[in-house]
Specification:
Blueprint lengths: L6 E15 L31 E2 L1 H15 L6 E3 L2 E3 L5 H5 L2 H6 L13 E3 L2 E2 L2 H8 L9 E8 L6 E8 L5 E2 L6 E10 L4 H6 L1 H13 L13 E12 L6 E8 H6 L1 H13 L4
Antiparallel strand pairs: 1-9, 1-10, 1-11, 2-6, 3-4, 5-10, 7-8, 11-12
Length: about 270
């Protein structure tokens, strides 16, 4: 089979929303240069504003990991210090919604374009103003002290973790969180199947709310809620995206997904008329 493929972009679905930290949120940054006696684990910050933010890679990676476990996919690809699932043959790839949506390594010759792009998500202006008007342990963040106990000596070992306080929101009306989902047709691509795979993305968003984002999740951090969800589409030949539907919660998105998919297929297939 030839490696040369003919693939056409039919449209893009935009999912905009806000992320609220229901409990303190810790997404780790670089601890290089941390002084003795300082915070053990710091959060990642924007280099220009010094505000904490959520990297798109962290959000995308967490959602993918949850989906892999939810569907029982084999963790067969070494990435850094852990493993992820990555289809290593064409037949498996064509039937794997997770790899189709989130992508596989570039060396996979059988792969098609990754469907999902996840942007970095910045602190909302309201939350930044609110945090700027109160005393916090560090700029825009709190410091949580945890104590581990040596099981043999009973000695206490205190550690300090930096977190974004509960109640803080990332993304707002002007600059919301954004996921971009591309729909393709052509060799090894089917536009209707791509629309069907939006179910995988909605599943992942629901799993995220049930789990946690960032680190220290098993100790209370990282519970988040996705709100103000707005779904829009820009089909080929149009210069602007058109809002399709708004949802107050992920649960409402999941409940209304079938009708939304029907409308998206109608818009995409109208190009062929």
């Amino acid at each position: 089979m030839s490696d040369i493929k003919s693939i056409q972009l039919k449209g893009r679905v935009f999912v905009h929303f806000q992320i609220e930290a229901v409990t303190g949120l810790h997404i780790g940054g670089s601890d290089t240069g941390v002084e003795i006696g300082g915070v053990d684990k710091t959060v990642i910050r924007d280099a220009l504003t010094n505000r904490p933010y959520i990297p798109g890679s962290s959000l995308k990676g967490k959602v993918r990991s949850l989906l892999e476990k939810y569907h029982g996919l084999k963790q067969n690809q070494r990435i850094g210090q852990g493993n992820i699932h990555s289809c290593d043959d064409q037949a498996a790839y064509h039937s794997c919604d997770v790899c189709q949506v989130f992508g596989v390594p570039g060396e996979r010759k059988f792969s098609t374009p990754t469907r999902l792009v996840v942007r970095d998500i910045h602190l909302s202006e309201k939350s930044a103003d609110d945090l700027g008007n109160v005393h916090t342990d560090m700029p825009y963040t709190e410091v949580k002290t945890e104590v581990s106990i040596d099981r043999v000596t009973s000695a206490a070992n205190p550690r300090q973790m930096e977190r974004v306080p509960a109640g803080v929101t990332f993304g707002d009306d002007e600059k919301p969180a954004e996921m971009v989902y591309s729909i393709y047709s052509g060799d090894d691509c089917n536009a209707d199947k791509d629309v069907d795979r939006l179910k995988t993305l909605a599943e992942g968003m629901q799993l995220l709310e049930e789990d946690y984002l960032g680190g220290l999740g098993s100790r209370g951090s990282g519970k988040v809620q996705l709100t103000g969800i707005r779904v829009s589409i820009r089909i080929k030949g149009k210069t602007q995206a058109e809002t399709l539907q708004e949802f107050v919660s992920v649960a409402k998105l999941v409940a209304g997904l079938s009708d939304l998919q029907t409308e998206i297929k109608k818009r995409i297939n109208s190009q062929e008329a």
